[in-house]
Write a structure and sequence with these properties.
This protein is about 35% helix and about 20% strand. The protein has about 150 residues and is of the alpha+beta class. It has a domain at about 45-145. The chain has a 6-stranded antiparallel beta sheet with strand order 3-2-1-4-5-6, covered by helices on one side.
């Protein structure tokens, strides 16, 4: 008695289709890189201020607009988020062997973002990523007027 063997094989059409899809995806990715697609330019900020921060002997932080001689804000108390972000940026400056003279640029953007850029090394912190309460600490600095007490 002869036993007939049956070969269970996967249909070829889906395999060929999957291979074609993979090749098309690789081709599209390669052409995109060669084409040199450019990201859309960043829109102009709604508000922007260049700021300098200095520690006072009593632990407060003096905030001065770049180019002014008098501080317009004194941050007292814990101010943990403000201190933490400034400490992180100052650390980056030390690692890059940069001085503390360059201002930080605080910007409010049309899409609701609030950023703090280090003009010395180009580092950026997206402040709203840390929550609205923390971002509000910096947002207040965009609108503060006058000189600190």
């Amino acid at each position: 008695m002869t036993v007939a063997t049956r070969r269970d094989t996967f249909p070829r059409a889906p395999l060929v289709g999957a291979a074609v899809l993979v090749l098309l995806a690789l081709l599209a990715a390669g052409l995109g890189r060669l084409g040199g697609s450019h990201p859309a330019p960043e829109p102009a900020p709604l508000a922007q201020r260049d700021l300098l921060f200095a520690d006072r002997a009593d632990g407060a932080i003096l905030v001065t607009q770049a180019g002014d001689s008098e501080p317009f804000e004194v941050v007292v108390g814990q101010a943990g988020f403000l201190r933490g972000t400034l400490r992180a940026l100052a650390r980056e400056r030390r690692l890059d062997k940069l001085g503390a003279d360059a201002p930080f640029r605080l910007s409010a953007w049309p899409d609701g973002r609030l950023t703090l850029d280090d003009t010395a090394n180009g580092r950026r912190i997206e402040l709203e990523a840390f929550g609205s309460d923390n971002a509000a600490v910096y947002a207040r600095l965009l609108t503060a007027r006058g000189h600190a007490p």
